[in-house]
TrEMBL record, chain A:
InterPro entries associated with the record: ABC2_TM, ABC_2_transport, Nod_factor_ABC_transporter
Coiled coil (UniProt feature): none
Predominant place of localization: membrane
Membrane protein topology class: Multi-pass membrane protein
Cell compartment(s), UniProt: Membrane
Name this protein carries in UniProt: ABC transporter
Tree of life domain: Bacteria
UniProtKB/TrEMBL annotation, chain B:
Keyword field contains Ligase: no
Protein name: ABC transporter ATP-binding protein
Matches recorded under SMART domains: AAA
PROSITE patterns assigned to the protein according to its UniProt record, in alphabetical order: ABC_TRANSPORTER_1, ABC_TRANSPORTER_2
Gene3D superfamilies: P-loop containing nucleotide triphosphate hydrolases (3.40.50.300)
Keyword terms of this UniProt record: Antibiotic resistance, ATP-binding, Nucleotide-binding, Transport
Domain ABC transporter residue range list: 6-229
C-alpha cells in the first residue's frame, strides 16, 4: 500500500511539474464557466446549478481522457516504464498510483468550477447534495477513466492524443453538456441518451438538483462501462503481452 | 550450498521468427564480475531482460538465487541500469533516488549514493535539464540504491567522456571490492578488459566463449604481427591488416609462417613485432563480426 502512495506521489509530482497540463485542466473548465454559464444562466439558480454540474462532468471527461489516454500512451514510450518493472514490486503499485493521481487531478480541476459557481452565479445546492455530488463524481469518472485507459494502452502516443481530442468534443456536445436539460438541439436530444456523457451528466444533475434520470441513458451508461472496461482490459493485456512476456 | 545469484538453464527466447537466445546456460556466482560481449543483435539485452524479470523464456529456466525473476521477491537483491537511460524528466535527481529507495528494505542513504557517483551537487536539479553524461551517471547510480548483491549494467558508459567513464569504473570497482557481483555488457572492449574478470561472448543467440580474459584471447588463437613498411605484399594466411600511424598490423593464425612469407617476399620492412591479440581481435574472430559492430575505446 505504501508503494502505491509512493508511485502516486511521484507521478503527481511529474504532473504538477508540467504546469501547462494542470493549468489546462483547471483553466479550461473555469473559462467555460465564465464565458458560457455565467452570462447565460448565472442569474437563474436552477439553470446555473444544472450548468455547473454539466461543466463538472465535462471537466471529469477531459481530465480522464487526457490524463490517462495521452499520459499512459506517452509513458509507454518511455524507457522509465520498463525500468520500474525491474524494481522489486509488481505492476500493481504503478497502476494504482496512476489511478490515484488521475483522481486527484480530476478533483483539482473541480476547484475553479465550484469557486466560479459559488461566487459568480446563483447556483445553489445543499451540503448533503454537495457530498452526494462528490461521490457521484467518482462514479462518473469510471467510464471516462476506462475510456482513457483503453486509448492509452491500445494506441501510440501521438495517435492517443489525437483520438482523445477527437472523442472529447462530440461526446461533450452530443451528450448535451453544452446546454441545460431538455434545451439542446433536437438531434442532440435524440443521440444524447446513447452517449456515456449523457448518463454521467444526468447522474450529476440528479445529485445536485434531484433531476429524474432517464432509464435509457442509465442503461447505455452501463453498456459503455462494460464495453470500455473490456477494451481497456484487452488493451492492457495486449500491451503486457507485447512488452513483458 | 546456496543457489547461484543468477542462473540460466538451457534458455531459449524468440521474438516472432527471430531466435534471440538459443539454449543458453550461464551461472553467475557471488563476487564475480562478468563481461557479456557480442555484436549488435547477439542477444545480450535479451539475456539481461530475462534475468531482470522483464521477459519470460520460451523454454528453459532463469533464476535469481533460485527464484523466478518475475516475482518481486526475487528482484530485491538486484540493481539494474538499462541500456536506454530511464529517468522521468520532470523529477529532481534526489527525488529519482528517493523513488527507487522506496522499493528496497535497506537502501543506501540518498546523499551517500549521490556522493559516490559524483552527483551530490546536482541533487536539486530536474533530470530533464542534466547533460547526457550526467543522466547516464544517475541511471547507473540508481542500480546501486538498494544495496544489491547483483547488478546488471547494460552498456553503462555509452555516451560518457573518458574522464566520466573512468570515474564510473572506480565506483564499479569499489562495489566489487565490497563483494558485489556484476553482469556487464559493453560496446567498449577496453571497458570489459578493465573491469571484467570473466568474459562471456554471445553471438547469434549462443554462448561462443565463456572464460577468463586470457582464455578468451587465447581461444581465438591469433597473433598480431606488426611491422613498419610501405606496402604489404599479398600473403597467404593473412586474415586482416590495419594501419596505425606508420605501423601495419597483420592478423594471422600462424605467425611463424606469415613472417617467413614476409621475408621471402623480399619487401622491405623494419621493427618486426609479434604479439598476442587484443580482446577486440579475439572477439571479432570468435563471432565473425564486422569490426563496425564494436567501438574500440578512444582514450
Amino acid at each position: 500500500m505504501s508503494l502505491v502512495l509512493t508511485h502516486a506521489r511521484y507521478q503527481f509530482l511529474e504532473v504538477v511539474r508540467v504546469p501547462i497540463a494542470v493549468i489546462g485542466s483547471m483553466l479550461f473548465p473555469a473559462l467555460s464557466m465564465i464565458f458560457f454559464v455565467v452570462p447565460n444562466a448565472g442569474g437563474d439558480p436552477v439553470g446555473a446549478t444544472y450548468a455547473t454540474a454539466s461543466t463538472v462532468t465535462f471537466a471529469v471527461m477531459m481530465t480522464c481522457l487526457f490524463q490517462y489516454g495521452a499520459g499512459i500512451a506517452e509513458d509507454r514510450a518511455q524507457p522509465f516504464e520498463p525500468y520500474t518493472r525491474t524494481l522489486p514490486a509488481g505492476p500493481f503499485p504503478r497502476f494504482a498510483g496512476r489511478l490515484l493521481t488521475g483522481l486527484l487531478t480530476t478533483l483539482l480541476s473541480m476547484v475553479p468550477i465550484v469557486a466560479v459557481a459559488a461566487t459568480l452565479t446563483e447556483a445553489t445546492t445543499t451540503p448533503p447534495r454537495l457530498l452526494l455530488a462528490a461521490g457521484t463524481l467518482v462514479v462518473v469518472s469510471v467510464p471516462f477513466t476506462l475510456m482513457g485507459l483503453a486509448i492509452g494502452y491500445t494506441l501510440p502516443s501521438k495517435a492517443a492524443l489525437a483520438v482523445a481530442q477527437v472523442v472529447f468534443f462530440p461526446f461533450a456536445f452530443g451528450g448535451g453538456l453544452m446546454s441545460a436539460p431538455g434545451q439542446a438541439p433536437g438531434f442532440v436530444e435524440a443521440v444524447a441518451p446513447f452517449l456515456p456523457t449523457r448518463g454521467s451528466v444526468e447522474l450529476m444533475w440528479a445529485a445536485v438538483a434531484g433531476y429524474p434520470v432517464d432509464p435509457l441513458a442509465m442503461a447505455m451508461l452501463a453498456v459503455w462501462i462494460v464495453a470500455t472496461a473490456a477494451l481497456a482490459v484487452w488493451g492492457y493485456r495486449r500491451d503486457e503481452g507485447r512488452r513483458y512476456t | 550450498m546456496s543457489p547461484p545469484l543468477a542462473q540460466a538453464i538451457e534458455v531459449t527466447r524468440r521474438y516472432g521468427d527471430v531466435l534471440a537466445l538459443d539454449r543458453v546456460s550461464l551461472e553467475v556466482g557471488p563476487g564475480e564480475l562478468v563481461g557479456l560481449l557480442g555484436p549488435n543483435g547477439a542477444g545480450k539485452s535479451t539475456l539481461i531482460n530475462l534475468f531482470t524479470g522483464l521477459r519470460k523464456p520460451y523454454s528453459g529456466r532463469v533464476m535469481l538465487s533460485g527464484l523466478d525473476p518475475r516475482t518481486p521477491m526475487a528482484r530485491r537483491h538486484i540493481g539494474v541500469a538499462p541500456q536506454e537511460t530511464a529517468l522521468p524528466g520532470s523529477l529532481r535527481v534526489g527525488e529519482c533516488v528517493d523513488f527507487v529507495r522506496a522499493h528496497f528494505p535497506d537502501p543506501l542513504p540518498t546523499g551517500e549514493l549521490l556522493e559516490r557517483f559524483g552527483l551530490a551537487t546536482l541533487r536539486r536539479r530536474q533530470t530533464g535539464g542534466l547533460s547526457g553524461g550526467q543522466r547516464r551517471r544517475l541511471s547507473v547510480a540508481l542500480a546501486f540504491v538498494g544495496r544489491p548483491k547483483l547488478v546488471f549494467l547494460d552498456e553503462p558508459t555509452t555516451g560518457l567522456d573518458v574522464g566520466a567513464r573512468h570515474e564510473l569504473w572506480d565506483a564499479v570497482r569499489a562495489f566489487h571490492a565490497e563483494g558485489g557481483t556484476m553482469l556487464l555488457t559493453s560496446h567498449y572492449l577496453e571497458e570489459v578488459e578493465a573491469l571484467a574478470k570473466r568474459v562471456v561472448v554471445l553471438g547469434r543467440g549462443r554462448i561462443l566463449a565463456d572464460d577468463d580474459l586470457d582464455g578468451v584471447r587465447r581461444m581465438a588463437g591469433l597473433r598480431r604481427v606488426s611491422v613498419t613498411m610501405r606496402a604489404v605484399p599479398p600473403l597467404p594466411g593473412l586474415l586482416k591488416s590495419s594501419a596505425e600511424g606508420d605501423r601495419t598490423h597483420l592478423l594471422t593464425a600462424d605467425a611463424d609462417r606469415l613472417v617467413r612469407d614476409l621475408v621471402m617476399s623480399g619487401a622491405e620492412f623494419r621493427d618486426l613485432e609479434v604479439r598476442q591479440t587484443s580482446l577486440e581481435e579475439a572477439f571479432l574472430t570468435i563471432t565473425g563480426a564486422e569490426s563496425g559492430d564494436l567501438v574500440p575505446a578512444a582514450s
